[in-house]
Amino acid sequence: MEVEDFEPLFGEPKVEWPATTSTPVRPFLFQVHAPDSSHLAFHATDFFSSTFAAVRSIEQLDDMRDDIGIGGSWSEFLEYLVNSIKFGDVKLVLEGKSKSDGPESARLIAQKSKGMPRISISMLKCVDTAANETMAILSLDLYKAHQKNQKLLIQEQEGRYQLTKKLSAEQEKSKHFQKQLDGLHYPKRHISHDKLTSDTLSATNPNGVSDVQIDQNPSPMKASKRVVPAHRRSKVRGALLRDIDEDD
Question: Which regions are flagged for Polar residues bias (predicted)?
Answer without folding.
Answer: 198-219
